[in-house]
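thought: fold this chain, then report.
action: predict
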Amino acid sequence: MSQQEFLCYIPNTVEPGHRGDDTTTGWGSIEYSTGLARTAEEHGWGGALLGTGWGRPDTLTVATALAARTTNFKPLIAIRPGYWHPANFASAAATLDQLSRGRVLVNIVSGLDNPAAYGDTRVDPAQRYARTREFLHLTRRLWTEENVTFHGEHFQVTDSTVAPGPYPAPERPHPTLYFGGASEAAERVAAAEADVQLFWGEPLEGLAHRIARLKTLSQQEERRHRPLEFGLRITTLVRDTTEEAWRDAEAKVEKMATGAGETAWTGNRRTAVGQQRLFDLARRGEVLDTCLYTTPGTFGGAGAATTWLVGSPTDVATALKNYRALGITHFVLSDTPYREEIARIGDQLLPLLEPPRV
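observation:
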């Protein structure tokens, strides 16, 4: 099993108020994002996922600035194949990986954003996943081979060599490639070409079935890489006591119900298979497993805001250890307000998860 990775989340938006964060001064500035990254370093995190979307700061540019202002912080850079050509991205990411001495992580996003705004014409799901598969395949080749020639349906390069290549590290041949998606097409892409399949917060039984299916798909797709690893992206609402955590969780949901802090809908979140799976959970019950809170999704929450792990540090650590027992080793955790919760979760929750954070 791979070494565990604990990442937090940097919203990377221009407008304040993301998921109810009450920060107003400096939001969206490099100083604010740097403060979050340094807080993550100081409180035991490996790095952070940088949110992406048209109308947000460019993630690779932000990641470069944050890597220059930190020591060990690893940016998980979310990017879309319709926004980047794989050769351009492979070169830019490899350069940053060299400059940061191997700290780059990559999250490939296939979901719709605002494709017309940046000239993307691929909106059909089948085409998008076929393109993502080519993107992952070609990016990996450009990071590990010289004089690459590839003529696919969506991308082409001839005699292409990325220089400099990724920073050489014995534990990984190139930046780790994360990918998410719950449809069969998405899972086949992950099984064939991703390094980490990233899940949203579902009950243990459901994720156990998905992991088993992905392992079977890896064989069917004749996977040529290291075994696929698994990750969890979820909100963790941690307080000193179980009672305090649930009081605060219910208060947050009450705010969402009245429109304050409501998450705006964008892209295809209403129709995406993964999003629908999470909405369906709320119909099964308010609390599933030990402390998986499904109600936020009924008031506009999306993605990681749809289900929360709620409780004391011990409660939430137990829940995460149960996910880890399924084979999940990469965790992207967050709550708002971001700065305060990066510190709180880092201090109270991460030390309870093995191996101990130094």
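thought: worth noting. Residues 149 and 158 are 4 Å apart (CA to CA).
final: tokens above.
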